[in-house]
Specification:
- The structure is a homodimer.
- Chain A is built from five helices and three strands, in the order H-H-E-H-H-E-E-H.
- The first copy, chain A, has helices spanning about 15-25, 30-40, 45-55, 55-70, 90-115; strands at about 45, 75-80, 80-85.
- At the A-B interface, helix 1, helix 2 and helix 5 of A face helix 1, helix 2 and helix 5 of B.
- The structure holds a DNA duplex (30 and 30 nucleotides).
Chain lengths: ~120, ~120
DNA sequence: TAACTATATGAGTCTATACGCATATAGAAT
DNA sequence: ATTCTATATGCGTATAGACTCATATAGTTA
């Protein structure tokens, strides 16, 4: 039961693939990753995100929009400010997992380069 | 110990962000997801991948190259054929996780649309 | 209302990359 | 050696989307 069957038959429609791909695409941008990382510390408004990331205000605004569309970030208005926060904490774990995977691969490559 | 600290300080260099982003970018393409899904059933050569995915041979070849570069897929030559296989099984789990997340969100949206 | 602040957005430019077509290359079989 | 099969790749085209600059919009304060 715990071991998944080797054959995953026909599933995953074309539309589902598009959705999944677009979700990954949201994370395929250094600027957006930077924003996510800044939000992991604590929630921030757009101006604070501009300072934290070094991006322009227009850029941060658009990227935050993407992240909200993808359901990764939430927004609430407070006075003039728009406060952004991580909406889906599993994102953080996901990124950590990916990071660790990459680090492992890289250190293996380094080992190979050094050893041969 | 199990709870990660709320503040993740300065880490994650610019280069690391680029790496992570490019890793995600590899998964941000429906065609490549299709190839990965086909390989989850069992390893396949390029021609079989062409049949399984409906992509052109040139396209499959290039996408496989990307997947190999990202360390997700492995290749070995057998006669004239090039056999491709999932190199990093964690990819499969990752995709499943993402799928489940998306499904949850979508069904919530449907519920909201129906309920309001 | 007017002036000011925080955020969003329109328009244009530029780069990355997916695709198709044709062709090159590697290996097998005759 | 020639031919056939499987895969890779050069090149041109088209599209997506990230960025900048300027400006619009929403909300605040005097």
């Amino acid at each position: 039961m715990a071991t998944r069957p080797k054959k995953t038959p026909p599933p995953v429609s074309e539309e589902a693939l598009l959705l999944i791909a677009s979700w990954f695409r949201t994370l395929a941008e250094p600027s957006r990753l930077k924003i996510l990382r800044a939000l992991e510390e604590e929630e921030k408004n757009i101006t604070e995100l501009v300072e934290a990331t070094g991006l322009t205000q227009a850029n941060v605004s658009r990227h935050v929009q993407s992240l909200v569309d993808a359901g990764m970030v939430g927004r609430r208005k407070e006075g003039l400010s728009v406060i952004c926060f991580i909406a889906d904490p599993s994102i953080t774990d996901l990124c950590d997992t990916v990071c660790n995977n990459l680090l492992k691969r890289l250190s293996n490559q380094v080992k190979k380069l050094g050893g041969s």
